[in-house]
Amino acid sequence: MISQDNKSDGSTDKKVRDRLFESAEELFCEQGFEGTSVRDIAASAKCNIASVNYYFGGKEKLYREIWRRHLVTLRDARIAGINKVMFQNGGKPELEDLLRSFAEAFISPLVDENKTRRLNKLIAREWIENHLPVNMFLEDIMVPTLNAMRSALAKICPGLDESKIPFLVISIVGQLLHLLHVKAIFQQIDTTVLPKFDLAQAIDHVVKFSTAGIQVYLKGKCE
Q1: Of 87, 210, 72, nearest to 144 (Cα)?
Q2: Both 35 and 133 in a single domain?
Q3: Which domain CATH number covers 43?
Q4: 146: CB partners within 8 A, 6+ apart
Q5: Are residue 125 and residue 43 in the same domain, yes or no?
Q6: What is the C-alpha separation between 124 and 136, in angstroms, rounded?
Q7: pLDDT in tens for each of the 223 residues of the chain?
Q8: Segments forming the whole domain that contains residue 4
Q9: Number of DSSP helices (H) and strands (E) in the chain, helices first
Q10: Which of 15, 6, 130 is nearest to 67 (CA)?
């Protein structure tokens, strides 16, 4: 039986859902999926146990919903970065501008500690426990982002072989993710031994390096 707190009122429903969501996310971060029970979530949210199933259909679906919100936020930021630059300069931006906008949109949400503290913990837990279906990452973030980049690159570089675009995007993403790992390592070492790691400078290098690589490839195709 759902408590009086959970009766079907629009504003009340939202408040209960939000409490359950917030409590569950924090518990999943700290205790993992297996280590968190429905009872734990309900108690933390000050709701009865039936609330989790009533509002989310169970712990598994609640866990996926938490992840989906994070993935959608990341996806939307990246696509917005692509769309923004495509409207600049009369709809004819430079290749470097596109790659820079994508790189900044990719990195920015991942270095904001206030926004990514929970996401980073969830990633670490998921890496070990593997509860999410692989197609969730494909459908919610990878395919939409790849399609947006494919369309943008096809307009900016009409001579680019579209079959190569997925490899190009994967290459850039791989470099950007590596920068985040390097940044984390440099934060833990003596900066008197190695120079201070400048993330903005490193991103600029990845952008210019990738731009030059695509331009050389295109030049070879035209010769």
Answers
A1: 72
A2: no
A3: 1.10.10.60
A4: 165, 166, 169
A5: no
A6: 17
A7: 444 444 455 677 889 999 999 999 999 999 999 999 999 999 999 999 999 999 999 999 999 999 999 999 999 999 999 999 998 867 778 999 999 999 999 998 888 776 678 888 898 888 888 888 888 988 999 999 999 999 999 999 988 888 889 999 999 999 999 998 888 888 777 666 667 788 999 999 999 999 999 999 888 755 4
A8: 1-57
A9: 10, 0
A10: 130
Over the Cα atoms of the chain, what is R_g? 22
Query: What does 36-91 look like in DSSP terms, one character per residue?
Result: --HHHHHHHHT--THHHHHHHSSHHHHHHHHHHHHHHHHHHHHHHHHHHHHTSGGG
Instruction: State the pTM of this model.
Output: 0.80
- CA distances (Å), 108 to each of 60, 111, 112, 201, in order? 29, 6, 7, 14
Token duo for residue 53: 């199933």
- Residues 122, 214, single domain; the answer is yes
Last residue of a domain, one of 37, 57, 77: 57
Our count of domains for the chain comes to 2
Whether 26 and 114 share a structural domain: no
Place of tokens 């980073």: 120
The rounded mean pLDDT for the chain is 87
Structure tokens, 216 = 């050389």
